[in-house]
Design brief:
It is a single chain. It contains 15 helices and twelve strands. The chain is of the alpha/beta class. It folds into two domains: 153 residues, 3-Layer(aba) Sandwich (Rossmann fold); 138 residues, Rossmann fold, CATH 3.40.50. The longest helix is centred in the middle third of the chain and has 20 residues.
Amino acid sequence: MDGLSCHHRSGRYCKLATPAPWRARLPYTLDNRLVVGVASSALFDLAESDRVLRRDGEQAYRRYQEEHLQDPLQPGIAFSFIRRLLSLNDLADDADHLVEVIVMSRNDPDTGLRVMESIAHHGLPITRAIFMQGRAPFAFVPALNVSLFVSADDDMVRSANQRGLPAGRALPSATVDDDDELRIAFDFDGILADDRSEQVKQESGLPELHHHGTAHAGSAHDPGPLQPFLLKIAKIQATERERKLADPDYRMRLHIALVTARHAPSHKRAIQSLKSWGVMVNDAFFLGGIDKGAVISVLRPHIYFDDRQGHLASTSTSAPAVQVPFGTVNGAPEHREANGVAGVDERVVGSAGGRHRAQLDERPSTASHPGAARS
């Protein structure tokens, strides 16, 4: 029987209509949406929380979070990007969002409460979250159709990448929060495309790389880790173009840029790849070894993705930087290759001490990120 039933005093049964919000939300599918997973360590500045956990231990950390439940966490590296991304939902009906952001955290639900309170304080329309006590949440990336997972935890991000998941590490960097635009910048090789070109360069040198690029100029590269994310972003940009046609006064907000060390003639294959994927970027910078930081300082994206930490060292001084540790240039940490997700999870089973250890282990060092308590 559809709807709800009730028992009347006369003994007859009547049927109640299912409330409209239920009809609208059941089932809520993620298949055709851009879904981004974000750890609390990337969304908020957790520097003070991290100091308490390191200095005083888990119980003090719990008390601190409870005592400061109504004290909002301050924005972190990915905050501006996430806020602007969610604002694009005004391009669609309320019940049919284009973008869904899900908090994916190693906090347990109790200590994660402050994260959700801070989300509400800042007016972020994030209503879905996964809190896993000391365990890596990235195992749920495929199940939730996540196209991008951002965390400040280097080990967790590398483990996710080794499993073929689209994960990036938010590095300590400048923030950009100047207007209502959303500017996203990507490196090409190892980010949007696979790293085959890098492999050729390392194996045979730069001349062979140019020869390889020219010989394959007419064929698209195989996708890299963030190509599906780019496709979803491009779909939203197409929706913006439709809005612009219907309303000439509408101002385009989403801006996509390619910032790559490629140069002629290898630029041709990059452009061909984008075309074959049905993507048109707004800007493309083929720098051929010029420092990317100079371009990023003028472009001022709200987030920039690159696979090389060396490139991000200069760009991070002027824009939020996210490293995607994919492919040949990053290698695979030897202690992660054989263990799989269970290698992280198995330490949680058992004593409270084991749980504490697992929760501590997920934090990167303060040298790599000062606010990384419990992603």
